[in-house]
Design goal:
This protein is mainly beta and 176 residues long. It has one helix at residues 12-19, and strands at residues 55-58, 63-71, 73-76, 79-87, 89-92, 97-99, 102-103, 106-109, 112-114, 117-125, 130-132, 135-142, 147-149, 151-154, 168-169. It contains one helix and 15 strands; from the N terminus they run H-E-E-E-E-E-E-E-E-E-E-E-E-E-E-E.
Amino acid sequence: MALWKESVKTSATEITEATDPAHRSIPETKPETQTPVQPAFRPTPAPTPGKPRAESLIAPDITIEGKIEGEGHVRIAGNFKGDVNVRGDLTIEPGAKVTGSVRAEKVTIAGELIGNIESAAHVELQQSGALTGDLKAGSLSVAAGSRMRGQAEFGWDDAKDGNSGHKTQGHSGTAS
C-alpha cells in the first residue's frame, strides 16, 4: 500500500481548458470587494490597579434573588433580593428596589432600599430615595424629599473616639 499518490501526466491543452473561463460553461464574475467585518464581541480587559473599575448593571425589567459579592461597581435599576457586598460603589436607580443588607464603599440611593447599610465610606440618599433600615457610614448626604426609617450612625471613627455607641434617629437631617 502506497502512502502517496502518483502524479498523473496531463497535456497542456487540458490544463488550459480547465482554468480558462471561456472553455467552461460558468460565466466569469468579478470578485466583489468586501468590507472588513468587525467582531461582534470584544472582551473587556481585566481591571488593572490604575484604571477605573467595571460596572455591572441589573436592568429595569430584571428581578434577581441571590447574593452579589466582588470587586467593582454595581448599578441596580431593577429588583434585587439578597445581600450586596462589593469593593466598589452601589447605585440604586429611581424605581429600583433592593431588599437585603449592603456593604459598599459608596452607596447612592435614588430608589428603595429595605435593609441595613452595614459599612460604607459615604451614603447619599437622593430626593427620590427611601431607606428602611439602619445605616453605618463615614459620611451621609440627605436630599430634601428623601425618606428614611431607622437609625443612622455616621461621622464617628470608632478607633479614635470613645463614643462608638452613639446613634442618631434617622427621621430627617443633612450631613455632607
